[in-house]
# Entry
Amino acid sequence: MPTALVTGASAGLGAELAAALVSRKWTVFGTARDPVNLRQAADEIGFTAVPGDVADAAHRRVVADAVGPRLDLLVNNASTLGPSPLPPLSEFPLAELENIYRVNVFAPLALIQLLLPALVSARGTVIDVSSDAAVEAYEGWGGYGSAKAALDQLTAVLGAEQPELAVYAVDPGDMRTAMHQLAFPGEDISDRPPPSASVPAFLRLLDERPPSGRYRAADLPVTA
# Structure
């Protein structure tokens, strides 16, 4: 039975990915900062909850111990948007920017470094969740977008350095999530698709294992 670790698994895309993997009979470990919401999601979906902050080194060691010596899939989904409303770069609080990079860039790389032996043992897959803000210049998105751009580059280099792994940066597209709502305070985002809509594209990557690289969920249509 393959094993997966999904970060940010308490809600949104992380919870939907965890549910899809559980439905495929995977053993899934999920982590997130909110222990109450994580355990509720774990009970409803059927994965093992390991609550904590992936930006914390001690928690990452706990996660690694829980996962064990073999890991087929790591999904780096946990992320932070930063200040809401989104400030322009000319006014961006540098302490907030540092935290965005700590959560969105340094934590995924640190988790990859820690879990690399387990991933290599399984010839596994790494999926780093990206964003169109990594490649498009949107006003207000300089903090989050630049961090995702950095994550994209780390993903690309990891794929070149670890050819035995499948390493993907995936842009899921706009989603109706709590974090997306923070980016548009007071606005109606009900026209955005639910995070479940992008899950089949992630599963297609797992099933077909194309070359490592950056992919958009919109470019991975799945026929029902």
Notes: The radius of gyration is 16 Å. Strands lie at 3-7, 27-31, 48-49, 73-76, 125-129, 166-171, 213-216. Helices lie at 12-23, 35-45, 57-67, 94-122, 142-161, 178-183, 199-208.
